[in-house]
Amino acid sequence: MDQRHAPPALPPNxxxxxxxxxxxxxxxxxxFGNLDYDATLASIVDAxxxxxxxxxxxDVAADVEDESAxxxxxxxxxLRHTPAIGDVTIPSVPVGQVSPxxxxxxxxxxxxTGEPVLRSAMNADVIRDGxxxxxxxxxxxxxxxRAGMTVALRVRHRVIGVLTLAQSISGRPFDTEDLRIAxxxxxxxxxxxxxxxxxxxxxxxxxxxxxxxxxxxxxxVPGVATGSRxxxxxxxxxxxxxxxxxxxxxxxxxxxVVGDVQGRGIGAAALMGQLRVVLRTHxxxxxxxxxxxxxxxxxxxxxxxxxxxxxxxxxIDVAAQTMVVANAGHLPLLFVPDEGxxxxxxxxxxxxxxxxxFRPGVMTVAFPPDVTxxxxxxxxxxxxxRSLTDGLEALRTAPLPSAPDELCAAALLASGRxxxxxxxxxxxxxxxx
Length: 433
Hints:
Blueprint: H1 14-30, H2 37-48, E1 55-61, H3 62-65, E2 74-81, H4 106-113, E3 117-119, H5 124-130, H6 136-143, E4 147-155, E5 158-167, H7 176-213, E6 224-231, E7 241-249, E8 253-261, H8 266-284, H9 289-303, E9 309-317, E10 322-328, E11 334-337, E12 343-344, E13 361-366, E14 371-376, H10 388-396, H11 404-414, E15 425-432
Antiparallel strand pairs: 1-2, 1-5, 3-4, 4-5, 6-15, 7-8, 8-9, 9-10, 10-13, 11-12, 11-14, 14-15
């Protein structure tokens, strides 16, 4: 082989350094697939321990998580120690609590200045000088603390936290090349934290909005017993646009609504709230069910929304023991008698609200006192593993009690719904009394 074309010799530890760089880079790229705040923080320390460091801590500015917190305070957001320390217990500040660094600690310096701090030769005295917690320095001395560095978690020219890394029992050093790797990693981690915080704020706002607008704890209505449930989608999902409502009308009648705004987040929850107000307002004006849904259709059309909006609106005549129902593309109501098998109302489905040429389907059906009617959204009966037809049949053939609250609980159980479902689920049960 012509030596003039041979690749240059790798410097000492270059292969190990390259493997570390590739590992850290790959780990950083995984942050953006998860918008859960706590999971993002845990993945940051998991990515660097034990492959790159023996100890890792993420401290986040307290006012980033809570605007009312002091701006100069750090709060422990994540930590991990290498399993190699065995039975040695390092009394670290728990996640969620304020990190009491003194001004001379490297983490405090980086948070204050934004500049990294590298201590290639470090001992427990640094810990004693910077952390007032008793026993921390002794524990690090026991595992052989030898090096440490701190790098800023910076977003839009602001330091939102600090990543602290340390070496001990592995005997590995830290040098300027390690610091560059850590800074690259911290830059990606900071963006992931910021994204997760933004997602959490949006989700909380949507959740608050829906709690205000969705009356799951229904007010008592004379003449009818009710039961209801609302289950938000599983972890990591935004709030949705499910709708239920029950309220009295003049002349001894009772109105009810079950609806579903497609999609998630603030937009779906806000549209659901507007629709509820419009439907209730026109219902109280005495409009018949089909005209009430026509007014709802006008709202959805005027807003020019892209979401699919389905809804069933019914009026119960308590004295006549009948029910008039108008449907806008929603699932059929399930009638559950005290004796005999449940059955779905043979109601015309109509078109979803906002559809060109919209006209709701309307039906009148008997509603005797020995029957409970159950309305629900598609999250109860349909998911990625089960078709809508199969889900509806499984619900109909399940053993279902007729008492409203017990019926809601049994319907959830029969459909196998728990925290793993990926769509909101809303149920409303009604029975004359």
